[in-house]
């Protein structure tokens, strides 16, 4: 792994003034999956892990894609600078609720640098979070817009926008230590994980198992409103509370346009998450 930035001009340079950029020019850069494991394991705080993941370059295909999208851009955003970097976890450092998605959208999080910000999925999601008291504003359009998560945190299972919204299994596995570290650092406060979609649901179980929770066998099936309580494995941990895992259909355009998921369906899941987190 190397110290300092090695970013092409296709991505925002760390420390160059982007609102909320967690990294600086001295943030270490992961260039391999082994680097990710080492840098994630040694991160001492959520701020550390956010900085390190936001400059990660471990997956060649995803680095090329995210930076290429940042150059070509969508016509409606042609005048904007795209973030073009991994989108780090974001929100309350003492969150009791973690909202887990698949990966940043090419012209959403990959453009704005904040997960579920600046795309249609985020419009539906943040409106619901606001109604449920988990977000300070009903809209999330850009880094620096004043949006804030309340007792909640948001992350993607894979931190870089993938082509066709489909990460490869090796990319998911390479990225997993970042999320594992966030789970470790949230351990004292975390009570609920809301998985937005099947992919996030699938990605979470091995990480919870790796964090010392007893995972039901067979693994619970994903569904909207699915709810599973997982307990800590060790006797010391048994004194701690477990974590409830909730399933929620992803608020993708396809799902919202077809009515598979609606605002009130999201509200039901997030209100339940709030109940369980108290
Ligand atoms: S997907 Fe994850 S591991 Fe791969 S380059 Fe992006 S941040 Fe790094």
Polypeptide structure, described:
48% of the residues are buried. The chain has helices at residues 33-41, 46-53, 60-72, 109-112, 120-131, 169-185, 198-210, 235-238, 253-257, 263-277, and strands at 90-91, 97-101, 152-156, 192-196, 213-214, 227-232, 243-248. Helix 5 (120-131) packs across helix 10 (263-277) and helix 6 (169-185) crosses helix 7 (198-210). It is built from 10 helices and 7 strands. It has 278 residues and is of the alpha/beta class. The protein has a 7-stranded mixed β-sheet, with helices on both faces. It has a domain at 88-277: Uracil-DNA glycosylase-like domain (Uracil-DNA Glycosylase, subunit E), CATH 3.40.470. 36% of the residues lie in helices and 11% in strands. Residues 36, 53, 56-59, 62-63, 86, 158-160, 171, 174-175 line the site of iron/sulfur cluster.
Set down the secondary structure blueprint.
Elements lengths: L32 H9 L4 H8 L6 H13 L17 E2 L5 E5 L7 H4 L7 H12 L20 E5 L12 H17 L6 E5 L1 H13 L2 E2 L12 E6 L2 H4 L4 E6 L4 H5 L5 H15 L1
Parallel strand pairs: 2-3, 2-4, 4-7
Antiparallel strand pairs: 1-3, 5-6, 6-7
Helix pairs in contact: 1-6, 2-6, 5-10, 6-7
The structure holds iron/sulfur cluster.
The site of iron/sulfur cluster (SF4) has 15 residues, from helix 3 and helix 6.
